[in-house]
């Protein structure tokens, strides 16, 4: 067995909780996910994804924030009793 060492990082508590929830869906811890990231980085010879700034318009960014808030249970999702009711709400 090879020797291991610790890497300490500081992250926002809410961000950590979101990551724990995400990775637990795959049956892994944050540590295991970071190790996978680091191994893939070595295999790729760098970051295993393209680094660029995403650019969205203000309306899209607002909708993305709202969707994240709904997904995290911070605001309730709208509920409709019919498709017609939903379409009418969307057209308003």
From TrEMBL:
Keywords: Toxin-antitoxin system. It comes from the Bacteria. Pfam families: RelB. InterPro entries: Arc_rbn_hlx_hlx, RelB/DinJ. GO terms for biological process: DNA-templated transcription; regulation of DNA-templated transcription. Belongs to the RelB/DinJ antitoxin family. This is DNA-damage-inducible protein J. The lineage of its organism: Bacteria, Bacillati, Bacillota, Erysipelotrichia, Erysipelotrichales.
